[in-house]
Structures are given as C-alpha cells and as structure tokens.
Amino acid sequence: MNFYKTIIFFKIVKLIITKILKLSIKIIINFYRIFISPLIFNNNCRYYPSCSKYALLAIEKYGIFLGLRMILVRILKCHPFGNNGGVDYP
Questions:
Q1: How far apart are CA 59 and CA 56, in angstroms?
Q2: For residue 55, with 0-12 CB atoms within 10 Å meaning exposed, 13-18 middle and 19 or more buried, which class applies?
Q3: According to the model, what pLDDT value does residue 67 have?
Q4: pTM of the model as a whole
Q5: Which residues contact 49 (CB under 8 A, 6 or more apart)?
Q6: DSSP symbol at 11
Q7: Could you tell me which residue, 40 or 7, shows the higher pLDDT?
Q8: Nearest in space to 54 (alpha carbons), one of 41, 38, 37, 67
Q9: What is the DSSP string of 40-87?
Q10: Which residues contact 47 (CB under 8 A, 6 or more apart)?
C-alpha cells in the first residue's frame, strides 16, 4: 500500500514541476515579446507565426522538452542565409 502512495506522490510532484517549468518559460517568452522584441526588431520576421509565438505554441502542444527542441531548430533556421521563410506551424 505504501508503495502505491509513493508512486502517486512522485507523479504529483512531476506534474507540479512540469507545470511550473512550463509557466516560467511562458512568462519569459511573453516578457521578451512585450518588452524586448519591439526594441530590437521592427516586425521583420520572415516566418509566420513569429518565433516567440511559435515557441508558445510548441510548448503548449508538445510539452517542455520537445517544444524547446523545436524552438531551437526554428531559431537556428532564422539567419540571413536561410530560406525565404513562410508559414511554419508547430
């Protein structure tokens, strides 16, 4: 009986940690979108949705780890020698 309580406890802890990480990443991305991005760029993103919106969508749809991997790939594709951009949804 005690073994099952331990398993349930660790599942709850994992769920709480995942939600906290997801929320903190979303807060950082939204802070960037509101305060930093308007100062640096003039809406010259070659992709739709923008990388920050793509990041929010990817984390919401695929979770933290796969979402962060998709964000990294998307940011690495966004360089002057890359393709012309376009529509790219997670």
A1: 5
A2: buried
A3: 92
A4: 0.79
A5: 57, 88, 89
A6: H
A7: 7
A8: 67
A9: H-SS--SEES-HHHHHHHHHHHH-HHHHHHHHHHHHHH-STTS---EE
A10: 54, 74, 78, 85, 86, 87, 88
**Residue 89 DSSP one-character state:** -
The tens digit of pLDDT for each residue in 19-47 reads: 999 999 999 999 998 888 888 866 677 77
What are the boundaries of each domain within the chain?
2-87
pLDDT band at 4 (very low <50, low <70, confident <90, very high): confident
Residues in contact with 82: Cβ distance below 8 Å, sequence separation at least 6, in sequence order: 46
- CB-based contacts of 29, cutoff 8 Å, min separation 6: 52, 55, 56, 59
- Place 5 in a pLDDT band, splitting at 50, 70 and 90: confident
Tokens of 25: 């990443």
